[in-house]
Specification:
Elements (H helix, E strand, L loop, with lengths): L3 H8 L16 E6 L3 E3 L5 E8 L9 E12 L6 E10 L2 E11 L5 E13 L2 E10 L19 E7 L7 E9 L6 E12 L1
Antiparallel strand pairs: 1-11, 2-11, 3-10, 4-7, 4-11, 5-6, 5-10, 7-8, 8-9
Length: 193
């Protein structure tokens, strides 16, 4: 049976891509942290810090990162804050996004999702997406109205060498030091692909 995407490609005269068989590899969760915590202040702070052991990415492997939390900016002065999220591997920054968040009585959901694939032991291609909620009427939990246009994506190529251990980090940072500007971490997961 032809899968729907492949069928659509054939119908417009394109050849569907062939999947690379990876043998008996399965997706493996290498880090899971459901510890809740809050981050304030202007210091860049890691919400994920893992070590990818030397050689673990051999054979064109990759990893997927998913983080979930929410952002609160109830500061009336200056009224807006810049919230920066970065993904780092070794000495390379794979993704950086800074969003200006205006003052609101509502919490905003924040989700980072993306993958990095090793095309060789010392070459990677990454794609990440940060989604920041619009703020608005809360539903269950930290709820929001729908995500706004503040969904951003970034693609990067890096050359970190996994012949040695590599530090993997996700960091957050606020532009203002205020107890009214807070990122609340809820869940982080790293999967080896």
């Amino acid at each position: 049976m032809v899968e729907p995407l492949a069928q659509n490609l054939v119908s417009v005269g394109m050849t569907p891509p062939k999947a690379e068989l990876l043998g008996d590899r399965t997706v493996q969760v290498v880090a899971r942290d459901n510890t809740t915590g809050s981050i304030t202040g202007t210091t860049e702070t890691a919400i994920l810090l893992e070590t990818l052991e030397a050689g673990v990415m051999e054979g064109k492997r990759g990893f997927r990162i998913t983080t979930v939390g929410y952002y609160r900016n109830t500061a009336s002065s200056p009224g807006s804050s810049t919230f920066t999220v970065k993904v780092k591997l070794g000495s390379s920054t794979l993704f950086t996004e800074a969003q200006t968040v205006t003052q609101s009585a509502s919490d905003r959901a924040v989700m980072l999702n993306g993958t990095t694939h090793f095309t060789a032991v010392d070459a990677q291609t990454s794609g990440y997406q940060l989604a920041l909620g619009a703020g608005g009427t809360a539903s269950a939990g930290a709820g929001n109205t729908l995500f706004t246009a503040s969904i951003v994506a970034g693609v990067d190529v890096s050359t970190e060498d996994n012949a040695s251990d590599l530090a993997l980090q996700v960091t957050v940072q606020h532009s203002q030091n205020s107890s009214f500007t807070v990122y609340f971490r809820r869940s982080t997961i790293v999967e080896l692909l």
